[in-house]
Write a structure and sequence with these properties.
165 residues, alpha+beta, Alpha-Beta Plaits, 2 domains, 4-stranded antiparallel sheet, two-stranded antiparallel sheet, 6 strands
């Protein structure tokens, strides 16, 4: 596994296939995974260990159904900040620590950050956004409430897309 100039890793086809499969089912046995990608159980184990050591695999996650645990109020919030540059890093870090915040992205465009969060209901959601608005440097928030979630995924495409070069 070689490192490219952009600090990404050069993955071979077996690594890409392995990553694709375990993203869909992290509980698959090493033996079954080996059968699917034509490697021994030990070779699969070594590849996974190498991918973890390189930071390609950052952890193993369980997807929880928010509605089943009373967290079905999804919010997507655009955040505008007064300070620019490094001060925004501190604001984003502070927002990331608020319970319910699932993702916070610093973005280019007409606003500075995009947040995805979950709450119990609209009252809890409103409180979460108010907490963000109290952070020094946050100038404005605009929150969207999706009425239908078509797809939620942390899946990262590792297999080459047909026709792409």
């Amino acid at each position: 596994m070689a490192i490219n100039r952009d600090s990404s890793y050069e993955l071979d086809e077996k690594d890409r296939l392995l990553l694709s499969i375990i993203q869909q089912n992290a509980e698959i046995s090493l033996s079954e995974l080996g059968e699917k990608i034509n490697l021994t159980r030990m070779a699969v184990s070594n590849r996974i260990r190498s991918l973890k050591k390189a930071g390609v695999i950052e952890g193993t996650f369980v997807k929880v159904n928010g509605a089943k645990v009373g967290q079905d109020y999804v919010m997507i919030t655009r955040i505008t900040c007064t300070p620019k540059g490094y001060e925004q890093d501190k604001i984003a870090e502070e927002i990331s620590k608020i319970p319910g915040v699932q993702s916070i992205y610093q973005v280019f465009g007409s606003f500075d950050m995009m947040m995805i969060a979950r709450a119990k209901d609209k009252t809890a959601g409103k409180e979460l956004v108010r907490e963000i608005a109290k952070i020094h440097g946050v100038r404005n928030t605009v929150t969207f409430i999706p009425h239908t979630v078509v797809r939620e995924s942390l899946f990262v495409e590792t297999m080459p897309i047909k026709g792409a070069k």
